[in-house]
């Protein structure tokens, strides 16, 4: 079996399409080699080795050692040095690389192959002893931390000691002798921490690093990240071993990162940062303030440091050519990493760049205009989930702002929250229902859970490409990075800036689009949607087969749904209309009534209010279909829980409190979700069904008279499991429609259908369809009842289930396609057999989840229905599912 794939010298055994086997980094290193870009030679150990490693008790395939040795030999031949050779050593980097980039994975180890002997060879060969020693101390630090697990700060302390003792401020000011001294201290740290010496054998170093990459696939960090991003565990990671090039050999050397377009706005400008005389992670680690690539970038951010365009114009020119070449080749915005060694440019990475959703939309539209991609591709380029970012509020421009500091606008959107200083605290408080703002000097992959829990992230160090910035943009969290004047005191739980002190628990607001940090809570307003957004949505609508409706019942929500393009209401929950103000009184009166007459008297009070609600909704929906679900929850939900509340109600209703308490006790159910609710309740009290039907039809007729246009109401019966339940209510509804027609002289236009939310209903869909003109899959209840799993009681163990891989996802968020999905398939098939063309839709939470939407497309459903804010997400997801 072939486990190792080489690249370099203008060719490669791999290519871009082999991402599954070589990981993203390896596949693109191969591709860049193939298209003639200057890539230091190396080889990729495939993801299959990772799979083999975990399937076989953490052991490697037998042929691997030999294939790695051959790969190394090929690199030696190209570079003209030898791995482990004391006179002229080959140094390599060991880099992890999963199919998609994953911050949880092992950090790259640079300068591998250095030891007490080879460092002297490197010094002689390069003619630069300081550079050789600098590389060696970096290697010990990186390898010590990443592979051997010695804590980073133990090395940092030694570095600070040496700087203090010598009066150096920057790392670059340390002389060769200082570095030699530092190396001895580093080695002592390793000896002390591990009880063994730092490994001197380059082969041992290499295999140590390879093993560490594979092991990192199962670290807590990596697992969390995979969970959040839906990355299957079975994918595994590849390992890249690559000849080193050096950005730390002097003033004609540099290292940098860039985006081929602005990842924040999407503007077509070259956007990046670099550092002279630096290596690898120096740019993102925020050790020195990075400099801009372009003069324009430098000016835009008001930086005094010279741009690469000024300092190394020739290499910058080459880099610009690479930018164009890569964009034309990949036809997408790229995120690149490069190093300059002695005025020669080397490409170390390219991948399609993470971007905000604004940027994604703008780039997709502009690339269509530039002729790089088709409209259909443009639709595929915007991640539906990411639209959340632009659909959510920004700061009210008219509101007062108490700006206390400013950092980099690292990820757009506005957010307010109470200050917390650790990821764990962020998670804890968020779980308790607080809105939190995570404030850190900088963030690391260990903080991901806290960043996820936070509304926004504020850091005091690092640039636009720092960890915090990149991850926040990916997650759609607002982020202000590198607010350098803020001083954080983790111990005291405070930060200070411009003489102000802000404590843990205080509210602050950040604006990730301007970089402003404000005291308190600044109100927000809804965003204006750009012309590019409208174009993408229009292209998406052209591709889409399923309709998109919204779950909404308040006039505000219905209006929002329309604004976002909902083509109907898929679920109007009438019980939500029962809680407001006076209504609850009338509802309670109805519940407490001891006979039908009493109930009818109370229902007569509710009727006009409910009719008014429907009129408002029909008015906003202007003839689009509206699915109205009749009363669904158990009655006791409308009764109070506290004793003093009982007394208050008794007074309001002028009855004896004891009577109310007795009735409440009577209504009590030990398992109300499976109790007297939905069509069961309506069948016990058909007068409720009658009142609701009357309110619907009278409103529809009134609207038709007013606008001259018929209103299409879809009356939906919840919780049916037996056809007869539906039949009886159907008769009540039809009779009511007839009565309204007689009274008003106008026939209401309506259909009657049912929710499919119980397994029995799904199985008996064939006969239920005889009486139902449409089905709406209520996947929240269907998930509960298929799994026998209470949504309200499962949160604590579901997390554990996901962690242990018992369930891949929370089935209440992402539809369980295997089980619940099979019931949907069965119901759809049987329903269609009885009634060809029966209208099918979904109205559970899943209707707004892109994954589940793609399942709905596969089942040929007619529409999905979701919460109003998710309508654009669903439109885009439905389009992508259809492409
Ligand atoms: P990440 O996935 O975290 O970006 P990389 O493997 O890309 O990690 O490595 C990080 C940085 O290390 C690169 O951007 C580059 O600057 C540096 N680096 C990696 N390999 C080499 C190499 N062979 N020569 C010089 N620098 C390297
Ligand atoms: Mg990289
Ligand atoms: Mg339900």
UniProtKB/TrEMBL annotation:
<dbReference type="Pfam" id="PF01326">
    <property type="entry name" value="PPDK_N"/>
</dbReference>
<dbReference type="Pfam" id="PF00391">
    <property type="entry name" value="PEP-utilizers"/>
</dbReference>
<feature type="domain" description="Pyruvate phosphate dikinase AMP/ATP-binding">
    <location>
        <begin position="317"/>
        <end position="369"/>
    </location>
</feature>
<feature type="binding site">
    <location>
        <position position="757"/>
    </location>
    <ligand>
        <name>substrate</name>
    </ligand>
</feature>
<dbReference type="InterPro" id="IPR008279">
    <property type="entry name" value="PEP-util_enz_mobile_dom"/>
</dbReference>
<dbReference type="InterPro" id="IPR000121">
    <property type="entry name" value="PEP_util_C"/>
</dbReference>
<dbReference type="InterPro" id="IPR015813">
    <property type="entry name" value="Pyrv/PenolPyrv_kinase-like_dom"/>
</dbReference>
<dbReference type="InterPro" id="IPR018274">
    <property type="entry name" value="PEP_util_AS"/>
</dbReference>
<keyword id="KW-0460">Magnesium</keyword>
<protein>
    <recommendedName>
        <fullName>Pyruvate, phosphate dikinase</fullName>
        <ecNumber>2.7.9.1</ecNumber>
    </recommendedName>
</protein>
<dbReference type="InterPro" id="IPR002192">
    <property type="entry name" value="PPDK_AMP/ATP-bd"/>
</dbReference>
<comment type="function">
    <text>Catalyzes the reversible phosphorylation of pyruvate and phosphate.</text>
</comment>
<feature type="binding site">
    <location>
        <position position="778"/>
    </location>
    <ligand>
        <name>substrate</name>
    </ligand>
</feature>
<dbReference type="GO" id="GO:0005524">
    <property type="term" value="F:ATP binding"/>
</dbReference>
<dbReference type="InterPro" id="IPR010121">
    <property type="entry name" value="Pyruvate_phosphate_dikinase"/>
</dbReference>
<dbReference type="GO" id="GO:0016301">
    <property type="term" value="F:kinase activity"/>
</dbReference>
<dbReference type="InterPro" id="IPR036637">
    <property type="entry name" value="Phosphohistidine_dom_sf"/>
</dbReference>
<feature type="domain" description="PEP-utilising enzyme C-terminal">
    <location>
        <begin position="530"/>
        <end position="881"/>
    </location>
</feature>
<keyword id="KW-0067">ATP-binding</keyword>
<dbReference type="InterPro" id="IPR040442">
    <property type="entry name" value="Pyrv_kinase-like_dom_sf"/>
</dbReference>
<feature type="active site" description="Proton donor">
    <location>
        <position position="843"/>
    </location>
</feature>
<feature type="binding site">
    <location>
        <position position="781"/>
    </location>
    <ligand>
        <name>Mg(2+)</name>
    </ligand>
</feature>
<comment type="similarity">
    <text>Belongs to the PEP-utilizing enzyme family.</text>
</comment>
<dbReference type="GO" id="GO:0050242">
    <property type="term" value="F:pyruvate, phosphate dikinase activity"/>
</dbReference>
<dbReference type="InterPro" id="IPR013815">
    <property type="entry name" value="ATP_grasp_subdomain_1"/>
</dbReference>
<keyword id="KW-0808">Transferase</keyword>
<feature type="binding site">
    <location>
        <position position="779"/>
    </location>
    <ligand>
        <name>substrate</name>
    </ligand>
</feature>
<feature type="domain" description="Pyruvate phosphate dikinase AMP/ATP-binding">
    <location>
        <begin position="62"/>
        <end position="300"/>
    </location>
</feature>
<feature type="binding site">
    <location>
        <position position="781"/>
    </location>
    <ligand>
        <name>substrate</name>
    </ligand>
</feature>
<feature type="binding site">
    <location>
        <position position="629"/>
    </location>
    <ligand>
        <name>substrate</name>
    </ligand>
</feature>
<keyword id="KW-0547">Nucleotide-binding</keyword>
<dbReference type="Pfam" id="PF02896">
    <property type="entry name" value="PEP-utilizers_C"/>
</dbReference>
<feature type="binding site">
    <location>
        <position position="780"/>
    </location>
    <ligand>
        <name>substrate</name>
    </ligand>
</feature>
<dbReference type="GO" id="GO:0046872">
    <property type="term" value="F:metal ion binding"/>
</dbReference>
<keyword id="KW-0479">Metal-binding</keyword>
<feature type="domain" description="PEP-utilising enzyme mobile">
    <location>
        <begin position="435"/>
        <end position="515"/>
    </location>
</feature>
<feature type="binding site">
    <location>
        <position position="757"/>
    </location>
    <ligand>
        <name>Mg(2+)</name>
    </ligand>
</feature>
<dbReference type="InterPro" id="IPR023151">
    <property type="entry name" value="PEP_util_CS"/>
</dbReference>
<keyword id="KW-0670">Pyruvate</keyword>
<keyword id="KW-0418">Kinase</keyword>
<feature type="active site" description="Tele-phosphohistidine intermediate">
    <location>
        <position position="467"/>
    </location>
</feature>
<feature type="binding site">
    <location>
        <position position="573"/>
    </location>
    <ligand>
        <name>substrate</name>
    </ligand>
</feature>
């Amino acid at each position: 079996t072939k486990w190792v794939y080489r690249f370099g010298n203008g060719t490669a055994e791999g290519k871009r399409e082999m991402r599954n086997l070589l990981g993203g980094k390896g596949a693109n290193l191969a591709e860049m080699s193939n298209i003639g870009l200057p890539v230091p030679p190396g080889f990729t150990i495939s993801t299959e080795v990772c799979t083999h490693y975990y399937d076989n008790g953490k052991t490697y395939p037998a042929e691997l050692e030999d294939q790695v040795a051959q790969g190394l030999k090929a690199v030696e031949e190209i570079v003209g040095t030898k791995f482990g050779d004391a006179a002229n050593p080959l140094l390599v980097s060991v880099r992890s690389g999963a199919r998609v980039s994953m911050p949880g994975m092992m950090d790259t180890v640079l300068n591998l192959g250095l030891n007490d002997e080879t460092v002297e060879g490197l010094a002689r060969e390069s003619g630069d002893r300081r550079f050789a020693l600098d590389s060696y101390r970096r290697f010990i630090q990186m390898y010590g931390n990443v592979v051997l697990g010695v804590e980073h700060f133990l090395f940092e302390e030694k570095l600070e000691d040496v700087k203090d003792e010598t009066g150096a401020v920057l790392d670059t000011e340390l002389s060769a002798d200082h570095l030699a001294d530092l190396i001895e201290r580093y080695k002592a740290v390793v000896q002390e921490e591990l009880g063994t010496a730092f490994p001197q054998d380059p082969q041992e170093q290499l295999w140590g690093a390879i093993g560490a990459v594979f092991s990192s696939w199962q670290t807590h960090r990596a697992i969390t990240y995979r969970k959040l991003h839906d990355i299957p565990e079975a994918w595994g990671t590849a390992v890249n071993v690559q000849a080193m090039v050096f950005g730390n050999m002097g003033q004609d050397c540099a290292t940098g990162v860039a985006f081929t377009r602005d990842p924040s706005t999407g503007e077509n400008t070259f956007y990046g940062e670099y550092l002279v005389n630096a290596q690898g992670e120096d740019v993102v680690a925020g050790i020195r303030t990075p400099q801009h690539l372009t003069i324009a970038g430098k000016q835009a951010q008001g930086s005094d440091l010279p741009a690469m365009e000024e300092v190394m114009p020739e290499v910058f020119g080459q880099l610009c050519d690479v930018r164009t070449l890569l964009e034309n080749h990949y036809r997408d915005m790229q995120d690149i990493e490069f190093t300059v060694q002695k005025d020669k440019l080397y490409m170390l990475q390219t991948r399609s760049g993470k971007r905000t959703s604004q940027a994604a939309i703008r780039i997709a539209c502009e690339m269509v205009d530039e002729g790089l991609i088709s409209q259909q591709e443009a639709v595929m380029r915007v991640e539906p989930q990411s639209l959340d970012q632009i659909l959510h509020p920004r700061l009210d421009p008219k509101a007062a702002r108490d700006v206390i500091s400013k950092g980099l606008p690292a990820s757009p959107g506005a957010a307010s929250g109470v200050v917390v200083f650790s990821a764990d605290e962020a998670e804890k408080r968020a779980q308790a229902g607080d809105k939190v703002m995570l404030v850190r000097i900088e963030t690391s992959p260990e903080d991901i859970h806290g960043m996820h829990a936070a509304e926004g992230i504020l850091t005091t160090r690092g640039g636009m490409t720092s960890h915090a910035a990149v991850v926040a943009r990916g997650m759609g969290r607002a982020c202000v990075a590198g607010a350098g004047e803020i001083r954080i005191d983790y111990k005291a739980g405070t930060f200070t800036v411009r003489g102000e002190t802000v404590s843990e628990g205080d509210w602050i607001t950040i604006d990730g689009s301007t970089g402003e940090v404000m005291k308190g809570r600044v109100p927000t307003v809804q965003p204006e949607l750009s012309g590019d957004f409208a174009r993408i949505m229009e292209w998406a609508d052209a591709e889409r087969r399923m309709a998109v409706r919204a779950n909404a019942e308040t006039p505000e929500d219905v209006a929002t749904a329309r604004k976002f393009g909902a083509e109907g209401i898929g679920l109007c929950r009438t019980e939500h209309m029962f809680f407001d103000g006076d209504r609850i009184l009338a509802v309670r009166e109805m519940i407490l009534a001891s006979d039908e007459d009493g109930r009818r008297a109370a229902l007569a009070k509710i009727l006009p209010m409910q009719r008014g609600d429907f009129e408002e909704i029909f008015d906003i929906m202007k003839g689009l279909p509206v699915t109205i679900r009749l009363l669904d929850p158990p009655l006791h939900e409308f009764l109070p829980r506290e004793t003093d509340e009982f007394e208050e109600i008794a007074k309001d209703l002028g009855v004896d409190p004891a009577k109310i308490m007795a009735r409440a006790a009577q209504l009590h159910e030990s398992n109300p979700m499976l109790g007297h609710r939905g069509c069961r309740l309506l069948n016990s009290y058909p007068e409720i069904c009658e009142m609701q039907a009357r309110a619907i039809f009278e409103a529809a007729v009134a609207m038709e008279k007013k606008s001259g246009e018929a209103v299409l109401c879809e009356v939906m019966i919840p919780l049916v499991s037996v056809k007869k339940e539906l039949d009886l209510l159907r008769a009540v509804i039809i009779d009511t429609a007839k009565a309204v027609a007689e009274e008003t002289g106008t026939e209401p236009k309506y259909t009657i259908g049912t929710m499919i939310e119980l397994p029995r209903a799904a199985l008996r869909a064939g006969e239920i369809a005889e009486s139902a003109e449409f089905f709406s899959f209520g996947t929240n209840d269907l998930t509960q009842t298929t799994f026998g799993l209470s949504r309200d009681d499962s949160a604590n163990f579901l997390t554990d289930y996901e962690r242990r891989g018992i369930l891949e996802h929370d089935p209440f968020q992402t539809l369980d396609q295997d089980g619940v999905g099979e019931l949907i398939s069965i119901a759809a098939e049987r329903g269609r057999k009885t009634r060809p063309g029966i209208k099918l839709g979904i109205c559970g939470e899943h209707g707004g989840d892109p994954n589940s939407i793609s399942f709905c497309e596969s089942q040929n459903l007619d529409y999905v229905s979701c919460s109003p804010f998710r309508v654009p997400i669903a439109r885009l997801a439905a389009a992508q599912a259809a492409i």
